[in-house]
UniProtKB/TrEMBL annotation:
It comes from Buceros rhinoceros silvestris. This is Mitochondrial import inner membrane translocase subunit TIM23. GO terms for biological process: protein import into mitochondrial matrix. GO terms for molecular function: protein transmembrane transporter activity. Component of the TIM23 complex, at least composed of TIM23, TIM17, TIM50 and TIM21. The lineage of its organism: Eukaryota, Metazoa, Chordata, Craniata, Vertebrata.
Length: 139
């Protein structure tokens, strides 16, 4: 076994066998290497809901502490703060989740309609989402 450079005296193995240029995962027949807009939609919507809930909870805690600052630490104050945290958390999670749903739906529809995946789809989906959200007068 001359000419080989083993990794260690205990392994009689040529390191060239360990170098692999090919991808290590197997894709189902017909699958793309990158995730499509529809697959990413679930991550986007879930991530926005979680972010909204966290932001809303922190905002609710801030508002609750501010509104009850004249009260002594007691059960009614704790309940009022907790109510504010849950109410704000749910409100923000719902708002951001709805926006992400609209954005993802528009993105998928535009991609399927145009038959192309590029930045124009993202810009169009964002613009349509903003226009629809503003038209409802929620903000």
């Amino acid at each position: 076994v001359t000419g080989m450079s083993p990794l260690s005296p205990y392994l009689n193995l040529d390191p060239r066998y360990l170098v692999q240029d090919a991808d290590e995962f197997i894709l189902p027949t017909g699958a793309n290497k990158t995730r499509g807009r529809f697959e990413l939609a679930f991550f986007t919507i879930g991530g926005c809901c979680m972010t909204g809930a966290a932001f809303g909870a922190l905002n609710g805690l801030r508002l609750g502490l501010k509104e009850t600052q004249n009260m002594a630490w007691s059960k009614p104050r704790n309940v009022q703060i907790l109510n504010m945290v849950t109410r704000q958390g749910a409100l923000w999670a719902n708002t951001l989740g709805s926006l992400a749903l609209l954005y993802s739906a528009f993105g998928v529809i535009i991609e399927k309609t145009r038959g192309a995946e590029d930045d124009l789809n993202t810009i169009a989906a964002g613009t349509l989402t903003g226009m629809l959200y503003k038209s409802t007068g929620t903000v």
